[in-house]
Amino acid sequence: MPIEVIEMLGETMVKVLPVTIALALVFTVLSHFWACNDGPPWWRKRDLITDICYWFFVPVFARVFRIGLLVLGAGVIFNIHDADGLVAFYDNGHGPLSRFPLWVQAILFLVASDFILYWLHRMFHGGGFWKYHAIHHSSEDLEWISAARFHPVNLLIGTILVDVILLMAGISPNIMLWVGPFTTFHSAFVHANLRWTLGRFKYVIATPVFHRWHHTSLDEGGNSNFAGTFPVWDILFGTFRMPENRLPDAYGADDQSIPTEIGGQLAYPFRH
Ligand SMILES: [Zn+2]
Ligand SMILES: [Zn+2]
After folding, report:
1. Span from the CA of 130 to the centroid of ligand 2 (angstroms)
2. Bridge partner residues of 91 (DSSP)
3. Which of 94, 49, 55 is nearest to 260 (CA)?
4. Cα(4) to centroid of ligand 2, in Å?
């Protein structure tokens, strides 16, 4: 078991590292020409080490828990307990959803998960859930590498849970071949220090300026733009906010007591 864990760690690193280097290059160049906010480049960001730790920890955590919950869900709900049964159940999806072409399933997955995540995100901005999500909002220098800063509880009752629900509903895991790289790139993109609004496409897909407004303080309108990918949810439910001729310029969680290093951040919600 320990060897398997180390192997999986290694495998994940091998996958994550080249992607990280590519994203670093792309956003260094783009932010040089189209920065949203002045200041030092991302590699001189406060809490850079914290974000690098999340960047490599989150994919491993997400993978372990996604597989764990898929196995658990198949056992509890569908009474499948053996390896062959699991492979047959998940390999190419199952039921009516799996009969659509793969690209249709990919779009279905993106739209359905984004809708559920919109409401989960709103839930995380209220009451007892905020202390977990506040970690994501604690970045004061918002950069592409801030994208992975999520508390594990936020990840579990967020992307991981939604992935598991949709795969259990029958969508083929093979869609991840496209959906995975898209969401990785897009989440880094919306956190990048870019002043891009993409013109009229700002209503179609979440942009850096759209999501940077979400990271501003409450009195700056931070309680808006909850959609991860499709701003249509914010337009439909009255939370869309992109002021004309203005750019967001201050970010953070409104709570000065959030530690800046990862250990303190992971413990923070349990102390409050
Ligand atoms: Zn938020
Ligand atoms: Zn964010």
Report:
1. 14
2. 93
3. 49
4. 32
> What does the block give as tokens for 104?
């249709």
Q: What is the DSSP string of 114-182?
A: HHHHHHHHHHHTSGGGHHHHTTGGG-SS--GGGGG---HHHHIIIIIHHHHHHHHTT--GGGHHHHHHH
Residues 6+ apart with CB under 8 A from 206: 186, 190, 225, 227, 228, 229, 230, 231
Is the pLDDT confidence value at 1 over 80? no
pTM for this model (two decimals): 0.94
What is the 185 CA–ligand 1 centroid distance (Å)?
A: 18
pLDDT in tens, 54-113: 999 999 999 999 999 999 999 999 999 999 999 999 999 999 999 999 999 999 999 999
Instruction: Calculate the dihedral angle through the C-alpha atoms of 67, 73, 79, 81, rounding to the nearest 10 degrees.
Output: 20
User: Residue 93 pairs with which residues in a beta bridge?
Assistant: 91
